[in-house]
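Researcher: Good morning. I'm working through a list of sequences from a screen, and I'd like to move beyond sequence-only analysis. For each chain I'm collecting a predicted structure so we can compare shapes side by side. This is the next one on the list. No need for commentary yet; just the structure.
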Amino acid sequence: MSASTQHNGFETVAAVDLGSNSFHMIVARWHEGEVITVDRLKETVRLASGLDNRNRLSSDAQERALACLGRFGQRLREMPPGSVRALGTNTLRKARGARRFLEDAEEALGHPVEIIGGREEARLIYLGVSHTLADDRGRRLVIDIGGGSTEFIIGERFEPQLAESLQMGCVTFSSLHFPDGRINGRRFRQAELHAQLELQPIAAPYRALGWEQALGSSGTLLALDRILQETGLEKSPGMSLASLEALRARMIEAEDIERLSLPGLSDDRRPVIVGGLAVVIGAFRALGIERLTTSDGALREGVVHDLFGRFHHEDVRARTIRHLRKRFAVDAVHAEQVVEEARRLFGPVAETWGLGNADAELLSWAAELHEIGLALAHSRYHKHGEYLLTHADLPGFSRQEQAELALLVRVHRRRLQERLFENLPKARRKRLVRLAVLLRLAVLLHRSRTDAPVPLEQISASGKNLRITFGDDWLAEHPLTAADLEREAAQLKELGFTLKAS
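Model: Good morning. Structure tokens for this chain:
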């Protein structure tokens, strides 16, 4: 359960991308160091078009999404827990009151559904693209136009150096700037200017860092590339500003989205292609892109490689935790003592309390970072730690994982209040409370910060009952720990837990 603990080494994994325009599923297996795709599915769902002006998902959009996930679930339901990652992106980040939908989505798919932040989405996209390319040096600019957001990443080999997610996508720009389907030059200019304005805050640092190669991923850019090739507007792979502007002129001639008839343009891409083209032209101008080629890699491929990285290489989340420990000068010796104690407490109760490998990792990371808030101040440092972990960019972590980590750090000391867990779904609430109990005890038992081992002889649990037995006379010889355990028993009683120490 330490930071180096691995999940079971699944040889077959799956990724599900709940995008703002389309849902994608990919199944892949690991064979002698190579990732081999064995199955993939895609459905156009247009989730972003289901958001109203209060960012609530319409019932129609939810029905389309759940029906799609039900079909995906038929393929994935029998895969073991932990081998499937389903990620929601921009639209689900924005959606209000979506808890019930997420619960229904998990039931339809048969696996948990996580929401990831924009920069984590960008990291995974870059990972997916970079694994489709030769492993050579030189900076790359990767652009991924989704339904509701566009990600811009500059990186080298497999490591992103700059990553941003901006609120502009093919679905949102099509509905905002071409709401009735009418196409004209004025509307295109407004949409392109809108994209340039969105890019203005990041344009200078991106231009300053620079890149040797610009790449595009996902449906919009792949569709534009195909259209440019089949219309003859491009004679070589990729696209330039001149060819994109020529394609814009063709679209303006059509005057209406319904009358768009271009070689390479599919029926499901037609309603959103104009907004996507405006975003691309705005990006070319704002960033000074000369030429862009496309890649088959995208978010779902990045998720697959990230999963296999957790099992067969290094989990990027463990690296993130190490970076935080170093950045905020966490006492490494004490942190390791608490980690080891949490491990000893976790093992005997895990099966009884229904806790698994993912819970063991989360508890370990919380133990490593429980004192991160001391970098700001000793007073209320548990709250400072929660704030840091809530608002920091944590590569590798979903929003749910990040929130749960922050919560465990928040409740590792002082009063354990039930209200702090009330916004969690019922199943996760029970799990987090139990992990909080174990973390609090691990911290308590090492309050003296000495190297002397704690002689735990027996640990047992049943329901909300926890019993700890120490070596002969150890509690009598450590009255401060005995008093702390008495106070902790009183704290846990408020949550219905019974703690007995002898």
